[in-house]
Design a protein that fits this description.
single chain, TerB-like, 8 helices, disordered N terminus
């Protein structure tokens, strides 16, 4: 699993000489995948939200986004609640507004399929707390995601 992580974050370097530099886009992808799998069912709609986020927010090509989604899915499948290093990276690299956008995107994944599951909400709450996002910003992010799901005619 460590080699998979290192190849995801440090693709050009051998595992033994890996830089201490992680990629924000990979960390976000893994957290999004954690939410998608929280209810033990990763829906196509959830994967679509994750891909769209990577393409739009990180200016990735569709192919690169698909590759990163596959790597993130494999990483999440091999782990058990192993998202703390990724949260730490985001705390180091993102400002408070960007962290709120991450939380909103987590909510968008939760609302992408048949509506939020209590395990998805719990995962988002844990990540939000670890990102030091205030409760009011956590709620605002949830409301925006819920409204976006409703305006698309999607599940609520």
């Amino acid at each position: 699993m460590l080699k998979t992580l290192q190849s995801l974050f440090f693709p050009d370097e051998p595992a033994s000489e890996a830089r201490r530099e992680m990629r924000v886009d990979a960390a976000v992808a893994i957290l999004l995948m954690e939410v998608a799998r929280a209810d033990f069912d990763i829906a196509d709609e959830e994967l679509a939200v994750i891909r769209r986020t990577l393409v739009e927010d990180f200016d990735m090509s569709e192919t690169d986004a698909d590759d990163l989604v596959q790597h993130a899915a494999a990483e999440v499948d091999d782990s058990t609640g192993f998202f703390f290093p990724f949260v730490r990276l985001l705390n180091e690299r993102l400002d408070p507004a960007a962290k709120c956008r991450v939380v909103e995107t987590l909510w968008r994944v939760a609302y992408a399929d048949a509506g939020k599951h209590h395990l998805e909400e719990s995962t988002i709450r844990q990540i939000s707390d670890l990102l030091y996002v205030s409760h009011s910003d956590f709620i605002r992010a949830r409301v925006r995601a819920e409204e976006a799901a409703g305006s698309r005619g999607g599940p609520q």
